[in-house]
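thought: fold this chain, then report.
action: predict
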Amino acid sequence: MTYEELKNLAESLIESGKETTLQMKETDRRMEKSREEIDRIIKENALSIKETDRIVKENALSIKETDRMIKKLSKQMGGIDDNQGNHAEQYFQNIFAEKPIFGGIKYDEMVPNLSHKDKDGEIEFDIALVNGDSVALIEVKNRIHPKFVKELAEERIKKFREYFPKYSKYKTRLGIAGFSFSKKVTEEARKYGIGLIRQVGDSLEISAGRLKVY
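observation:
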């Protein structure tokens, strides 16, 4: 190889080295920019995560506060229902104590809150009207669900027979007392032959045309 060729080769290598150096610097610059961009994204996401956590915590507190208010309101409403239920029970007990007549049958006494409780179970009837051969079991409800009518006729009467054997040979009639009844409750009561006792002004309205003897 001639001197001139060697010189050209050396110059070419030097030039290539310069280009390589420039390319490396550009690569470093781009990498540095990428790192900065990545750092920025990480910081932004970190802020987003913190903000999300803050919102979640605030909502969690709001949910807890809402739950607390709902529980408090439910408790208050439950107290109101209990008071109304006790008032209704006392009202009808007083009425039947003065005039123990139901379904055209006169009874000798009114037994309030006839109850039984032992290890096998418990049950209570708000009003029991009793004479020599018949007993009328009357439940007082502030709010009456149609399902309760069926429960009284199919389940509670069985427990009555089980827990109060002294009335086993008594003719038993059923009634439900309240301040108002829905159409569905009225229909269910008629189907099961259960009398309905309703307050109308200062007196009672008793629907007991087709009382069933249980």
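thought: worth noting. Residues 76-83 have pLDDT under 50 and may be disordered.
final: tokens above.
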